Amino acid sequence: MERLKSLNAEITKLEQARSNRKPITNVNDEHGKKLSVLERLAIFVTERVGTMGFFLLILVWTILWCGFNILASEVPALHWKAFDPFPAFVAYLLMSNVIQILLMPLIMVGQNLQGRHSELRAEHDLDVNIRAEEEIEMILLRLQLQQELLMHLVKAQGIQLDAITAQHLQDSQPHAPADSASETGQS
């Protein structure tokens, strides 16, 4: 009976700890609400620049820019005027470097923000796992309490559990098949 009281006390303690916990929240929403406009811009740029679509856009732009200026500089029969003459491509290099200078810090800020968000998600996952472990522990304690209560009731009723268990095992064993010759009607 003392064991039942200690199990009940443990369950009560776990239930009190559970009621004192803060509710589970959506960490994605919380993180999104805390971001400033510039931080949202940095994440937007980081997510878009790191795609194959952006790579293909830069590739096409480079091919068109360089292709037009090479043809305009090297093939006079086309009568095209090169706005960034071959082989220097000074304007192209200037624009490419300016884009790189602007994108690099933005991408780094965006990656830092995404890293912070990942850390928040990991902390949230740990919290959920700890709560799940506590819930499982409480369920196991309740099952143990119920088992011990049932055993106490069985003993109080004077029921011989060994006899019931033996009968159950005997009933659950498969019966031996009859002789195959008698089944087919042969003697």
Account of the 3D structure:
With 187 residues, the protein is mainly α. The protein has one domain (2-170). Helix content is 79%, strand content 0%. The chain has seven helices and no strands. The chain has helices at residues 2-20, 27-34, 37-49, 52-74, 90-157, 161-172, 180-184. The chain is elongated and about 110 Å long. The mean pLDDT is 83.
Keywords:
0% strand; 79% helix; mainly alpha; 187 residues
Topology:
Blueprint: H1 2-20, H2 27-34, H3 37-49, H4 52-74, H5 90-157, H6 161-172, H7 180-184
Helix pairs in contact: 1-5, 3-5
The number of helical segments is 7
| Element-by-element helix/strand order | HHHHHHH
Largest sheet: none
- Into which percentage range does the β-strand content fall? under 5%
Number of domains: 1
Residue runs with pLDDT of under 50 for 5 or more positions: none
Q: Into which percent range does the helicity of residues fall? A: over 70%
Structural class: mainly alpha
Averaged pLDDT, please? 83
Count of strand segments: 0
